[in-house]
Design brief:
mainly alpha, 3 domains, 487 residues, Rossmann fold, 3-stranded antiparallel β-sheet, Arc Repressor Mutant, subunit A
C-alpha cells in the first residue's frame, strides 16, 4: 500500500495541529508524541500548526503555553509554528471552488428545524441526520436569501441520501463510496448514503475543523496524519473534499482512543490532566513520555529509557486499534523509576524545592526510596536534628519512651566508632528489645520516618555528632510529652 511519503519527494511530514483554546492535556500529548515519533523514525519533518480559526476562543497565551509544554516534553518541531488563520484566503477559495462545482451549499435551517428533522429521521428508524432540505435551493435563490441577511451555514454535499434533493434532481458524480486508506486498517470504505452533509462554515462565518484542516495538510505537504479513530468519519469527509479540490490526501493512521480510568474519552472538556499541572506537581517530562509511548504499543521494551531508544523501537504498524486506558499509577511508576536512575547531583537540585539544603550525598542516600520529589520532605530530620518525626514515626518514638533513647545514647557514646551493627547489638542488650520494637524507634529518631534508607547508610551519613544530636532531641521530646504525644 502507498503510505503517502512520495507526495513530498519521499520526505515524511507529520504535524500536530491543536486548537489554542486551552492547555495541553493528556490526549493532546499522545497525538503529538505519535506524530513526532513517526516523523523522527523516518528522518522526516514534524510541524506545529495552531488551528486558530475559532476567533472567540483562540488565545495567544494558549499557543505560548502549548509551545512551552512541547519543549518541556522534548517534542521539537521543524520551522516556525504555523497559524491556520494565515491561510484564510485559501480556505475561502477552496469553499468557493466547491460551491461552484455543486459540492457545497448554503443551509438556512435553524436549530429547531434541524432538531425536528433529526427526530423524524430517528422515528423512521434512521440515524438522526440532516434531511438535506436546502440542497433543493438553486444557487441563485440561496444567494438572494443570504444577501437578504438570512443566517446560514455552509455544508458539504456529501451524502447520497440527500443527492436527489438537489435542485433539478441531478446526481453528483464521484461514486457511492469514499475510501480512506489507513496504515493500520487497510482500506476503510464509507457508503455515502451512511454519511451526513457536514457543516464546514458556521453561521458566524468561521470555518469548522474539516475544510481548513484538510486544505492546510495539503498546503504543508503533510504525508501522514496519526489520530484517534473517532476521526474516521471526519477523515472520510476530508478525503472526499480533497478529491473534489484535486488536492492530495495524506496517509492516515487511526489508532484506538485514549480513555480515562472510567472508560470515557480523555479530553480537556472533561477536566483531563494538563501538562502544566503535572509539571507543577514535580513530574519529570520523560515519565510522561515513557507512559504515553507504551499505550497501545506493547512491544516497546522497558529499557528504552531515552528519546533515541523510543524512536528506534517505535513501530507504528503495531499500534493498537483498540481503545486504551490511561493510568496515573503507570505514570508515577515511571516517575519513580527515572528518579531512582537519575545522577545524584541532578536529583539534589530537584530536591531543593522540598528539602532545602539537600546535596548529592543526601540525594544518593534517599534516592532508592523516592517515588515523587515530594517524598523527600519525609526525611527532613536527616538534615535538621530539630525536625520532628511525623505520624507513625512519632508514635513509634513515643511508644519507646525517653528511657529507651537514654540507653541508646549511652550505647552510642560507648562505641569506639560509628557502627550500626555494633550499636544495634548494644541497644538490644541494654533494653531487651529486638526486631521491630528495636529498629523502628531508632529509625524514627534518626530519620523522622518509619521506612527509608538502610540504617547503616543513615548512621554513616549522620556520623557520631549527627546521631548524638537526634537521640538527645528525642529524649527531650519524650520527656516533655511523657512519651504520649508530640510537643
Amino acid at each position: 500500500m502507498n503510505d503517502g511519503a512520495d507526495m513530498n519527494g519521499g520526505k515524511v511530514v507529520t504535524r500536530f495541529a491543536p486548537s489554542p483554546t486551552g492547555l495541553l492535556h493528556l490526549g493532546n500529548v499522545r497525538t503529538a508524541l505519535l506524530n513526532w515519533l513517526f516523523a523522527r523514525k523516518r528522518d522526516g519533518r514534524f510541524l506545529l500548526r495552531f488551528e486558530d480559526t475559532d476567533r472567540d476562543r483562540s488565545e495567544r497565551r494558549c499557543m505560548e503555553a502549548i509551545e512551552r509544554d512541547l519543549r518541556w516534553l522534548g517534542l521539537d518541531w521543524d520551522g516556525e509554528a504555523r497559524l491556520q488563520s494565515a491561510r484564510a484566503g485559501e480556505h475561502a477559495g477552496a469553499l468557493e471552488r466547491l460551491a461552484e462545482a455543486g459540492h457545497a451549499y448554503r443551509c438556512f435551517c435553524d436549530a429547531s428545524q434541524l432538531t425536528l428533522d433529526r427526530k423524524l429521521a430517528a422515528a423512521r428508524g434512521g440515524p438522526p441526520r440532516y434531511a438535506g432540505r436546502c440542497r433543493r435551493l438553486s444557487p441563485g435563490e440561496a444567494r438572494r436569501r443570504a444577501e437578504g441577511g438570512e443566517p446560514f451555514v455552509w455544508r458539504l454535499a456529501l451524502s447520497l441520501r440527500n443527492d436527489g434533493a438537489r435542485s433539478g434532481g441531478a446526481r453528483e458524480d464521484g461514486g457511492d463510496e469514499v475510501v480512506v486508506r489507513d496504515l493500520l486498517r487497510g482500506e476503510v470504505r464509507f457508503n455515502r448514503r451512511d454519511l451526513d452533509d457536514p457543516v464546514v462554515v458556521r453561521s458566524d462565518g468561521t470555518f469548522t475543523f474539516l475544510l481548513p484542516n484538510a486544505v492546510d495538510d495539503a498546503a504543508d505537504s503533510v504525508t501522514h496524519v496519526l489520530r484517534g479513530d473517532d476521526h474516521l468519519t471526519n477523515t472520510a469527509a476530508q478525503v472526499w473534499l480533497l478529491e473534489r479540490l484535486g488536492l492530495p490526501a495524506p496517509a492516515y493512521l487511526h489508532h484506538g482512543l485514549l480513555l480515562d480510568a472510567d472508560g470515557g474519552k480523555l479530553s480537556k472538556r472533561k477536566g483531563g490532566q494538563t501538562v502544566a499541572g503535572l509539571r507543577e506537581a514535580g513530574l519529570l517530562p520523560m515519565a510522561l513520555v515513557q507512559a504515553m509511548a507504551r499505550l497501545g504499543h506493547p512491544n516497546m521494551p522497558e529499557d528504552a529509557l531515552d528519546m533515541a531508544s523510543l524512536i528506534h523501537h517505535f513501530e507504528p504498524e503495531r499500534i493498537s486499534t483498540a481503545a486504551v486506558r490511561w493510568s496515573d499509577d503507570e505514570l508515577w511508576r515511571w516517575q519513580a523509576r527515572l528518579l531512582r536512575a537519575m545522577p545524584a547531583g541532578e536529583l539534589a537540585g530537584m530536591l531543593a524545592r522540598v528539602l532545602p539544603g539537600a546535596d548529592a550525598a543526601l540525594a544518593s542516600l534517599i534516592q532508592p526510596n523516592l517515588s515523587r520529589i515530594e517524598d523527600a520532605a519525609a526525611w527532613a530530620r536527616l538534615l535538621r536534628a530539630d525536625a520532628p518525626p511525623q505520624g507513625e514515626a512519632w508514635q513509634a518514638a513515643c511508644a519507646a519512651g525517653a528511657d529507651f533513647f537514654r540507653r541508646a545514647l549511652a550505647c552510642w557514646e560507648a562505641l569506639a566508632a560509628a557502627d550500626w551493627k555494633a550499636w544495634a547489638a548494644a541497644v538490644r542488650e541494654a533494653t531487651g528489645r529486638s526486631g521491630k520494637a528495636l529498629f523502628l524507634p531508632l529509625r524514627a529518631a534518626l530519620t523522622g520516618a518509619t521506612h527509608g534508607p538502610e540504617m547503616s547508610r543513615v548512621v554513616d551519613w549522620l556520623g557520631r555528632d549527627g546521631v548524638r544530636a537526634r537521640l538527645a532531641d528525642m529524649i527531650e521530646r519524650c520527656e516533655q510529652t511523657g512519651g504520649e504525644g508530640q510537643s
